[in-house]
């Protein structure tokens, strides 16, 4: 979906390179950014530090960090003690155990509530439908369905104000995302992607997210700056 000129946008900001790039694209399109980050009990909580650094780099109007512990629900290797898959065949079918049940639905719902308070009509999310590990809530049809929900579930919607969910990375590969971010001058050393980092924060290099990130940087050309620190 393309971005249009507006005033305020709520941006889901995880601390990974995708959300950083999506937010930067929104900023370049003259949105005023209100960043929303979730501490949801994820084992890779190291990403919260990156989210704070990225928010500062972007110069967001406000960075709201919410605690929403999804460990009580479980169902994912990111919120339980189950092993995070490593060296997985990314061409295989099926949804991996790192899928967090309904995560993007939950996050977008909170973003929608904050957007209403801010009188914002735009939400930005960094999902993409190509290098996405098979998650069902990273697809265009999911985002379209959520926009339809917003139209009937909010005061703005029933009063005829459309809330749009922007996914500027939806059709891009990881390499294309990285190239777009580099064109915008982004410092990807600030970001964190690994699902199962070492205690000192070093990436494992073998989970789906690490593999996709490595593939993206190799195809884009430059070395991953996060590995050069």
Topology:
Elements: E1 8-12, H1 17-28, E2 32-39, H2 46-58, E3 62-67, H3 103-118, E4 122-124, H4 140-153, H5 155-158, E5 164-166, H6 174-183, H7 208-220
Parallel strand pairs: 1-2, 1-4, 2-3, 4-5
Helix pairs in contact: 1-2, 1-6, 6-7
Characterise this structure.
- The structure is a single chain.
- By secondary structure, the chain is an alpha/beta fold.
- It has a single domain, classed as HUPs (Rossmann fold), CATH 3.40.50.620.
- Helices cover 36% and strands 11% of the residues.
- A five-stranded parallel sheet has the order 3-2-1-4-5, with helices on both faces.
- β2, α2 and β3 form a beta-alpha-beta unit.
- The chain starts with 7 loop residues before the first strand and ends in a 9-residue tail after the last helix.
List keywords for this structure.
single chain; 5 strands; 229 residues; alpha/beta; Rossmann fold
Helix percentage: 25-40%
Strand content: 5-15%
Class from helix and strand fractions: alpha/beta
The order of strands across the largest sheet is 3-2-1-4-5
* Envelope shape: globular
Low-confidence parts: 1-5
CATH class: Alpha Beta
Order of helices and strands: EHEHEHEHHEHH
Q: What summary fits the major beta sheet?
A: 5 strands, parallel
Question: What would you report as the Rg, rounded to the nearest angstrom?
Answer: 17 Å
Distance between the termini: 35 Å
Relevant CATH superfamily: HUPs
């Amino acid at each position: 979906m393309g971005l249009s000129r507006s005033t305020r946008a709520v941006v889901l900001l995880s601390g990974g390179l995708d959300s950083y790039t999506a937010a930067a694209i929104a900023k370049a399109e003259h949105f005023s950014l209100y960043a929303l980050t979730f501490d949801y009990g994820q084992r890779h909580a190291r990403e919260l530090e990156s989210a704070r650094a990225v928010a500062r780099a972007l110069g967001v109007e406000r960075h709201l960090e919410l605690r929403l512990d999804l460990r009580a629900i479980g169902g994912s290797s990111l919120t339980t003690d189950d092993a995070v898959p490593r060296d997985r065949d990314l061409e295989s079918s099926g949804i991996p155990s790192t899928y967090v049940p309904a995560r993007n639905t939950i996050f977008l719902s909170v973003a929608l509530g904050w957007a209403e308070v801010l009188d914002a009509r735009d939400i930005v999310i960094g999902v993409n439908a190509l290098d996405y590990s098979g998650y069902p809530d990273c697809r265009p049809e999911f985002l379209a369905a959520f926009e339809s929900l917003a139209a009937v579930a909010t005061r703005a919607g029933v009063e005829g104000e459309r809330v749009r969910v922007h996914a500027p990375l939806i059709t891009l590969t990881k390499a294309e995302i990285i190239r777009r971010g580099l064109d915008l001058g982004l410092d990807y050393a600030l970001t964190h992607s690994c699902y199962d980092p070492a205690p000192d924060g070093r990436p494992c290099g073998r989970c789906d997210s690490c593999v996709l990130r490595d593939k993206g940087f190799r195809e884009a050309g430059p070395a991953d700056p996060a590995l050069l620190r």
